[in-house]
Write a structure and sequence with these properties.
Blueprint (H helix, E strand, L loop, with lengths): L2 H16 L2 H8 L3 H15 L4 E2 L6 E2 L1 H28 L3 E8 L11 H11 L2 E8 L2 H9 L5 E5 L7 E16 L13 H4 L3 E5 L15 E6 L2 H9 L4 E5 H9 L3 E3 L2 H4 L1 E10 L6 H12 L3
Parallel strand pairs: 3-4, 3-5, 7-8, 7-9
Antiparallel strand pairs: 1-2, 5-11, 6-9, 6-10, 6-11
Helix pairs in contact: 1-2, 1-3, 1-4, 5-11
Length: 295
């Protein structure tokens, strides 16, 4: 196999993982027509049809599913080979794929920008691929060896992964201007607050609500803080937010905290790494830097 063959296999894997040609455009950063041409080239090269596409939708053929499995193993072996050769030379090069929660900037317990500067100085030739993901997706992709590290809240630790506690972030209950509680100075008990509509986190089925507050009405579920912020600013929902995420809106008089001492809770953030995977030199440096900032 030649380099062009490997490139075509990577295109095929992106199409299969994305669920179609149009969905793969973002991941590959090329047009749908280019992807279609490359897929035809690969099918011609292999002498078999890998997928069906048309009005009925996209689906892998039986042969396509087999090729996808073998291509995944091949690409992984190629990446491991590059890492091993670089390790022999002592090189710090290649790529590190990192996924985190959103709205981390401004948290004094986790100086994200300082950590990135340190990683850049320690590994100037390494490309950092940063993504924002929910915790379940992070764990799944690390187990599949598609991510090197994740940072989020992980209340249920998955087997095959190693967790390092990084920091605790206070989650405060807020309401927005226009909400019935915005102009009230009365401190309400949890049972009273539970009657109001609440914007919850969508990961873990929206059930991640530590503390005493157990809202009864969840009409919005969001996997990111921006969605929770928008719900609170609408004046229709209560929602928990980290202080650094809400502070701008509080300063503008569009949001206020409610019963901070009673209804706040602490979320524990952890780094997660794979267990048993052979770590390349950049992965070791990454872990060493994160451990420096752990609690």
């Amino acid at each position: 196999m030649s380099n062009p063959d490997l490139h075509l296999l990577r295109v095929f894997m992106a199409v299969a993982e994305s669920g179609g040609f149009s969905q793969a455009q973002i991941a590959l950063n090329v047009s749908q027509s280019t992807i279609s041409t490359q897929m035809i080239d690969l099918e011609t090269r292999l002498g078999m049809r890998l997928c069906r596409r048309g009005r009925a939708g996209f689906a892998l053929t039986d042969e396509g599913r087999e090729v996808f499995k073998y291509a995944k193993d091949l690409i992984q072996d190629c990446d491991e080979f590059v890492g091993k050769v670089n390790g022999i030379r002592g090189d710090l090069s290649g790529e590190l794929r990192i996924a985190t929660a959103d709205s981390l900037l401004g948290n004094r317990a986790f100086p994200f920008e300082t950590i990135l500067a340190e990683l850049r100085d320690a590994m100037p030739a390494v490309v950092l691929q940063l993504s924002v993901m929910d915790p379940l997706e992070i764990e799944r992709l690390i187990l599949e060896q598609k991510l090197h590290m994740g940072l989020h809240t992980f209340p249920n630790h998955a087997p095959g992964l190693r967790y390092i506690k990084m920091f605790e972030e206070e989650q405060t209950l807020y309401c927005g201007r226009g909400h019935p509680l915005f102009d009230s100075d009365v401190t309400l008990e949890a049972s009273e607050l539970e009657e109001y509509e609440y914007a919850s986190r969508s990961y873990y089925g929206g059930a991640l609500r530590p503390g005493k507050l157990k809202p009864k009405k969840n009409h919005i579920h969001s996997g990111n803080m921006e969605g929770i912020v928008a719900a609170v600013l609408s004046g229709r929902f209560l929602g928990h937010l980290p202080v650094q995420c809400a502070q701008t809106w509080v300063d503008q008089g569009r949001m206020k905290p409610l019963s901070t001492a009673l209804h706040s809770y602490k979320a524990t953030f952890e780094c997660v790494f794979p267990i048993g995977a052979r770590m390349a030199n950049p992965q070791r440096v990454l872990e060493d830097v994160m451990v420096k900032y752990s609690t």
